[in-house]
Write a structure and sequence with these properties.
Largest sheet: 8 strands, mixed
Number of strands: 15
CATH superfamily of the largest domain: NAD(P)-binding Rossmann-like Domain
Oligomer: single chain
Structural class: alpha/beta
Strand content: 15-25%
Helix content: 25-40%
Length: 374
């Protein structure tokens, strides 16, 4: 199969979808890997490294899209890329369609087969292609939040750890999944007082045991969220409904009640955000202040550490890329139920219920489109 790897064009995006090691594995398996020149530079990978691994370097994104049977990306296509997608071409990337009707409509119009990393889901509910980036984003959230609390960034001027004689910051994490657990772990390591809320009491019990009771766990409810948010110096939003828009757990009225100079880092922003006042920001302009609260809404946080992120992502995506390349997308999803759950759009049809529900679009079963071998 001809596999295309274009350069990412999202603002501040520094990752690339495949490492040279990944290219070598694909090439040794008999596939042709087409990489756009310069695609890996911001991740510290030059064209010569890709070429030495067996990639064919192409001068521009248009050449990659035109020649490839499968496009492997990190982030979702942006408007300049919409028209480059071809009918029947496989797109394998983070899509987060529930956050964008425009993107959903563009992928439907393209006729491509679109598989989202973020909804590849095992029977136990785990999200293997989302997990490594959630680990990175969760760990970065505590660091970003600590920076937001600095006075020079509009914050309260609070040090997360405090110092002897001065108490540490109060950090509140909404959601105890991968992002939330990693955010809590780093915030604890930085010396903060940490409270984490989740509806799943079993998960809270597990974190309490893993972290030896060093954090406060609270069963989530509207009243519990209100109390915690009002007490927070730093609020980290870490909720996820796979494939669907994030629930708005923090209304604007509650943001108004937060401490002056408090900070919010909403990692759920790539699925619309769980804080009503949050909007997407970029690495070049990551924050804004509303109601006296510093808001951080960067939707591609792991791009801040592209060396770590690119290798972590390739570790989990490469086996699926190999399967799709060897068996075709139909053969791969027939054999892998986890990958099948990642299929969101097929040739103009939505096949993922959460995406369809987000926009009240019709949804076809994957079985019905798998039966169409045209």
């Amino acid at each position: 199969m001809r596999i295309g790897v274009p350069k990412e064009i999202k603002s501040g995006e520094t990752r690339v979808a495949v490492t040279p090691e990944g290219v070598r594995v694909l090439a040794q398996s008999g596939h042709v890997v087409l990489v756009e020149s310069g695609a890996g530079l911001l991740a510290g990978i030059d064209d010569d490294q890709f070429s030495a691994a067996g990639a064919t370097m192409l001068p521009g994104a248009a050449d990659v899209f035109a020649s490839a049977e499968m496009i492997v990306k990190v982030k979702e296509p942006l408007p300049p890329e919409y028209s480059r997608l071809q009918p029947g071409q496989v797109l394998f990337a983070y899509l987060h369609l529930a956050a964008s009707r425009e993107l959903t409509d563009a992928l439907l119009a393209s006729g491509a087969v679109c598989i989202g990393y973020e909804t590849v889901q095992r029977a136990d509910g785990s999200l293997p292609l989302l997990t490594p980036m959630s680990e990175v984003a969760g760990r970065l959230a505590a660091q970003a939040g600590a920076s937001c609390l600095e006075r020079s960034h509009g914050g309260r001027g609070v040090l997360l750890s405090g110092v002897p004689g001065v108490p540490p910051a109060e950090v509140v994490v909404l959601g105890a999944g991968t992002v939330g657990a990693n955010a809590a772990r780093i915030a604890l390591g930085m010396g903060a007082n940490v409270t984490i809320l989740d509806k799943n009491v079993d998960r809270l019990r597990q974190l309490h045991d893993i972290l030896h009771g060093r954090l406060t766990t609270v069963a989530s409810s509207p009243m519990a969220i209100e109390r915690a948010v009002c007490a927070a110096d730093l609020l980290i939003g870490a909720v996820l409904v796979p494939g669907s828009i994030a629930p708005r757990l923090v209304p604007e009225s509650l943001v108004r009640q937060m401490k002056a100079g408090a900070a919010i880092v909403d990692v759920a922003i790539d699925q619309g955000g769980c804080v009503a006042t949050m909007r997407p920001t970029t690495h070049s302009a990551p924050t804004f202040v509303e109601h006296g609260v510093v808001h951080y809404g960067v939707a591609n946080m792991p791009a801040a550490v592209p060396r770590t992120s690119t290798w972590a992502l390739t570790n989990v995506t490469l086996p699926h890329v190999l399967d799709i390349a060897a068996k075709g997308w139909r053969g791969a999803v027939r054999e892998d139920t986890a990958l099948a759950r990642g299929v969101q759009v097929v040739r103009g049809t939505v096949t993922h219920a959460a995406v369809a529900d987000s926009f009240r679009l019709p949804c076809s079963s994957l079985d019905s489109v798998l039966g169409d071998d045209t």
